[in-house]
């Protein structure tokens, strides 16, 4: 029988994978995808707990998160293009000008 | 009834503002000078009207409140004026002599750069002086007191491009500040002392009414009056604060006449007269005032012997004459002191304006002869001017007779009354009289030395220039003639009883001083014979001084040179003003400078700047260390965020 714990565990694993990806990958698009993974892991938590508690609030929140994620993707990809026009690269280590 | 009193200081203020703001645009000297003089004259008319009204009035003390100024708890300070016989005399002198000197200045300052500035300051001075004498409480008086100091500074430094003039202005200001400090200390102490008896006031009438609450001859009243006296020594150039007045001669001559002879320097005398009750309550202070006055009269006269600058001689003479006034105040001869103040204003203003006329003429002649190295103020370059400048000579001579106390001239009546009181008053002493009498002889000597060197004998002016010395224009000579006339007849309002007069002046001032003199049993006593004898002696001493001057400077003109050759050290000491300036430099000025330098280099640069710079240095060091956290690599920031989240969440979950 699949209980709420399994969902939460999966969600935690997904979140950790996303975090690790953000921290280790250099390609900005991959980092972006990792962030999406993190967001969706949170969505999974929301839905699982919503079902478990019997309350619709969590599911409504998921819509918000998805909206934000969509907006973020639009802005983020626009930024990628701007970066690429400047440096012909989307490696984040190339964007290190804002420092001492 | 006296509600237009405020107009008296108001007119000069208006003149000052107009000339100050628009004078540069007006440019026309006649309009600028005319406006300033007109304002003074209007003020004089209002003063005369009030004076006459007060003469016909039975009540002699009137307080006019214009507006409320400060109202704190039970302390109420108004913009209030006080008209009584004393301030009435003062406003007449200030506006009358002031008008004449304004008129004179139009001629004297002709062609000066920034003509308007001069008249702006001069009117401002008149405003401040009138506030001083009309002020109904000590704070309004203090505004005037500070205002005249400021105007004095501005006018001494009128030729500010000259280093000596700007230095003299600063010296006058700083020395006056020392006196003002005394004035304020006195005022605060008085306020506190009366307040602790339940009367919180600085109104002069109320002070006089409540003075009896203080202990007669007590420490408090002595301290208060001594502090006030310190203020008076600063403003009125008495020992020890007299050194600024001779230097103040750097200002234009009309300024010397108005501020440094006729009006401002008498403020100290006036102030003592205004607070006569308090001063009379402390015999110690009275004795100090009299002694300082007598010493100053004597000491300043000695310096007058060896000065060659015509204005400097007059400056020391002023210091000496002010000494007489303080001597009078100190022995309780209040009305005699004010009487001398008035006659002195006439003859000394005339003398200064006369010297200005001489300087003006010589300046003109030198200019004509393209001589730029001779000093037009040096008496050694003068001589024989009586034929060139007859009006100047006559008025000057008459005023000299007045200052020397020659009988029938104004100075005789006032000076003799002071000397009589110094001898015969219950607060007097024969020694005070002796100092005054000797100083009178010395006055006669140095004044006639001045007259002989300037107007008699051979003409020692540069030969090229000497035929081009003109008599001064009418704007200069009219004030001279009026003041000369006053120097002759001004004394007849105070002819003492012993000479068949009724001493109307003393009678006029009686409402202000009589109560004090009566209450503290201050009066001059002695037989008529003694009084005649005293009069005879002082006239004799004066005659001796004149005769000596005549012998030394007319009959045997080489005698002074022989004398100085015989006593070179004495001559040098007198010529250098007894080295008092050097002594003050050594005792006060240089130590102050050293403290200042120490505070600048030691405290300000090292401590204050050190703290400020140190704080900046620490912040900068910390910043330059921490800046490396700002690596610019996205991953570093991401790691920091993740660690932060983990720590915070961990804290709430496990903490």
UniProtKB/TrEMBL annotation, chain A:
It is found in: Cell membrane; Membrane. Keywords: Cell inner membrane, Cell membrane, Membrane, NAD, Quinone, Translocase, Transmembrane, Transmembrane helix, Transport, Ubiquinone. The chain crosses the membrane at residues 7-23, 29-49, 61-84. The keyword Transmembrane helix applies. GO terms for molecular function: NADH dehydrogenase (quinone) (non-electrogenic) activity; quinone binding. GO terms for biological process: ATP synthesis coupled electron transport. This is NADH-quinone oxidoreductase subunit K. The lineage of its organism: Bacteria, Pseudomonadati, Thermodesulfobacteriota, Desulfuromonadia, Desulfuromonadales.
Automatic annotation (TrEMBL), chain B:
Composed of 13 different subunits. Subunits NuoA, H, J, K, L, M, N constitute the membrane sector of the complex. Residues 69-119 form the NADH-Ubiquinone oxidoreductase (complex I) chain 5 N-terminal domain. It comes from the Bacteria. Keywords: Cell inner membrane, Cell membrane, Membrane, NAD, NADP, Plastoquinone, Quinone, Translocase, Transmembrane, Transmembrane helix, Ubiquinone. Residues 457-594 form the NADH:ubiquinone/plastoquinone oxidoreductase chloroplast chain 5 C-terminal domain. It holds the Pfam family Proton_antipo_M. It is found in: Cell inner membrane; Membrane. It is a multi-pass membrane protein. Residues 137-443 form the NADH:quinone oxidoreductase/Mrp antiporter transmembrane domain. InterPro entries: NADH_UbQ_OxRdtase_chlpt_su5_C, NADHpl_OxRdtase_5_subgr, ND/Mrp_TM, NU5C-like, Proton_antipo_N. GO terms for cellular component: plasma membrane. One of its GO terms (biological process) is electron transport coupled proton transport. This is NADH-quinone oxidoreductase subunit L. It catalyses: a plastoquinone + NADH + (n+1) H(+)(in) = a plastoquinol + NAD(+) + n H(+)(out); a quinone + NADH + 5 H(+)(in) = a quinol + NAD(+) + 4 H(+)(out); a plastoquinone + NADPH + (n+1) H(+)(in) = a plastoquinol + NADP(+) + n H(+)(out). Its main location: membrane. One of its GO terms (molecular function) is NADH dehydrogenase activity. The chain crosses the membrane at residues 6-22, 31-52, 86-106, 118-136, 142-160, 172-193, 213-234, 255-273, 285-306, 313-339, 345-362, 389-410, 430-452, 473-495, 532-553, 634-654.
């Amino acid at each position: 029988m699949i209980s709420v714990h399994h969902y939460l565990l999966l969600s935690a694993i997904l979140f950790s994978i996303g975090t690790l990806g953000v921290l280790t990958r250099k390609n900005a698009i991959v980092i972006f995808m990792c962030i999406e993974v993190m967001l969706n892991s949170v969505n999974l938590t929301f839905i699982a707990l919503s079902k478990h508690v019997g309350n619709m609030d969590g599911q409504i929140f998921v819509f918000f998160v998805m909206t934000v994620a969509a907006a973020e993707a639009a802005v983020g990809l626009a930024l990628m293009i701007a970066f690429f026009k400047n440096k012909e690269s989307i490696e984040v280590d190339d964007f290190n000008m804002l420092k001492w | 009834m006296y509600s237009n009193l405020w107009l008296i200081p108001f007119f000069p203020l208006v003149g000052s503002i107009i000339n100050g703001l628009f004078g540069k645009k007006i440019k026309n000297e006649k309009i600028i000078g005319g406006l300033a003089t007109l304002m003074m004259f209007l003020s004089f008319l209002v003063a005369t009207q009030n004076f006459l009204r007060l003469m016909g009035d039975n009540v002699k003390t009137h307080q006019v409140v214009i507006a409320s100024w400060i109202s704190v708890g039970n302390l109420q300070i108004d913009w209030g004026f006080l008209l009584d016989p004393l301030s009435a005399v003062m406003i007449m002198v200030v506006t009358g002599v002031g008008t004449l000197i304004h008129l004179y200045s139009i001629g004297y300052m002709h062609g000066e750069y920034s003509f308007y500035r001069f008249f702006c300051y001069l009117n401002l001075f008149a405003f401040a002086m009138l506030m001083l004498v009309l002020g109904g409480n000590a704070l309004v008086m203090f505004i005037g007191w500070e205002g005249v100091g400021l105007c004095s500074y501005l006018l001494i430094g009128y030729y500010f491009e000259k280093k000596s003039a700007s230095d003299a202005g600063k010296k006058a200001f700083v020395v006056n500040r020392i006196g003002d400090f005394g004035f304020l200390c006195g005022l605060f102490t008085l306020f506190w002392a009366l307040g602790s008896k339940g009367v919180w006031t600085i109104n002069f009438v109320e002070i006089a009414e409540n003075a009896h609450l203080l202990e007669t001859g007590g420490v408090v009243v002595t301290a208060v009056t001594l502090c006030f006296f310190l203020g008076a020594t600063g403003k009125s150039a008495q020992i020890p604060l007299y050194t600024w007045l001779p230097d103040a001669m750097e200002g234009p001559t009309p300024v010397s006449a108005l501020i440094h002879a006729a009006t401002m320097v008498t403020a100290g005398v006036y102030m003592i007269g205004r607070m006569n009750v308090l001063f009379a309550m402390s015999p110690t202070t009275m004795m100090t005032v009299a002694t300082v006055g007598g010493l100053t009269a004597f000491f300043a006269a000695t310096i007058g012997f060896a000065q060659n600058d015509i204005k400097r001689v007059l400056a020391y003479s002023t210091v000496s004459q002010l000494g007489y006034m303080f001597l009078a105040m100190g022995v309780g001869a209040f009305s005699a002191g004010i009487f001398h103040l008035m006659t002195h204003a006439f003859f000394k203003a005339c003398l200064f304006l006369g010297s200005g006329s001489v300087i003006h003429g010589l300046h003109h002649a030198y200019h004509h002869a393209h001589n730029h190295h001779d000093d037009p103020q040096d008496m050694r370059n003068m001589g024989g001017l009586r034929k060139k400048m007859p009006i100047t000579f006559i008025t000057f001579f008459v005023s000299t007779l007045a200052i020397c106390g020659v009988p029938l001239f104004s100075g005789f009546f006032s000076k003799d009354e002071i000397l009589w009181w110094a001898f015969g008053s219950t607060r007097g002493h024969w020694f005070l009289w002796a100092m005054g009498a000797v100083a009178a002889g010395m006055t006669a000597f140095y004044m006639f030395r001045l007259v002989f060197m300037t107007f008699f004998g051979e003409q020692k002016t540069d030969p090229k220039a000497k035929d081009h010395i003109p008599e001064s224009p009418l704007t200069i000579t009219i004030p001279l003639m009026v003041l000369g006339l006053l120097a002759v007849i001004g004394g007849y309002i105070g002819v003492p009883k012993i000479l068949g007069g009724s001493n109307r002046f003393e009678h006029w001032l009686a409402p202000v001083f009589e109560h004090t003199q009566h209450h503290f049993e201050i009066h001059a006593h002695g037989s008529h014979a003694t009084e005649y004898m005293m009069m005879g002696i002082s006239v004799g001493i004066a005659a001796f001084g004149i005769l000596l001057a005549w012998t030394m400077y007319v009959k045997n003109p080489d005698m002074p040179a022989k004398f100085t050759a015989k006593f070179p050290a004495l001559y040098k000491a007198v010529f250098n003003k007894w080295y008092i300036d050097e002594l003050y430099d050594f005792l006060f000025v240089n130590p102050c400078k050293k403290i200042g330098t120490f505070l600048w280099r030691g405290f300000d640069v090292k401590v204050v700047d050190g703290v400020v710079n140190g704080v900046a240095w620490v912040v900068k060091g910390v910043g330059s260390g921490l800046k490396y956290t700002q690596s610019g690599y996205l991953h570093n920031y991401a790691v920091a965020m993740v660690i932060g989240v983990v720590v915070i969440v961990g804290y709430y979950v496990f903490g």
